[in-house]
Amino acid sequence: MEIKILKDPFPHAIITEVIPWDLYPQLKFPKLQKRNNTRAGWDLFKGEKRYDEFFAQDPTWKQAKDILDSEKLIFSICRAFKDELKLQGIDVDRLQLIDFIETPAQLQMGHIAFNRFDHKIFSRFDLQASDGTTLRAPHVDHARRIFGGVFFLCDGEEEGMVGGDFGLWRDRQYHGDRRPHDCELVVTYPARHNTLYVFLNRNDSFHGPKPVSHISGTRKWAYFSISARQNVWATDRRSISPLQRAKNLLEDGARFCQYHLSNLKTG
Ligand SMILES: [Fe+2]
Q1: In the CATH hierarchy, which fold is given to the domain comprising 2-239?
Q2: What distance in angstroms lies between residue 200's CA and the mean position of ligand 1's atoms?
Q3: Whole-prediction pTM value?
């Protein structure tokens, strides 16, 4: 594994050979059913029963999972950005990796906890695939995500993909509200096997793929993140009105209740 750190337009890193090369070629990407209202359309989310079943039935994928979830990888990333994290009040030496899984409702919620950041972090990775029509426009991830990332499990050229590179964007009308206004593409990185592009998920860390104009195969990757349960990136208070702030909280509450009510109904 090799980590290359870059600073512009926001701190990020390129990590190559995440999975040892004697193991990586044995990983066969699963055939996923298309689902609506998910991130990429074809997804396998941590916390789902079928996610656990998939990794349990394939020893090679289980080994890969152990590497992606490992303290070694998580803390290598955190340590590489020690100074940037310190600016945010995060002391890398105090971080503790915990086993925490977001529920499907929490995945959609902006807030899942309101207490002070306790230096407890958790990671998740989800398998994703796309035919190029379901990719997200530039955005920043939830404010509880300290790092976000894309771990490619394909090669753009092999998939006949034009576009689809991982892009870092700059918002020309940046407001500090974690919403994109007028984003321009600054840097792109190609889809390459066994390569993780990871970034500090600051208020200005707008990221998203370059639009796909052609693809004959499938874009295959794992969404990767390192998070706290509390939001670690505070928006500029002047950028969101009190009314909008209240509305966001109400929507979070509605998603939380909806999920738990539907669980009660289905037992
Ligand atoms: Fe993202």
Answers
A1: Jelly Rolls (2.60.120)
A2: 11
A3: 0.92
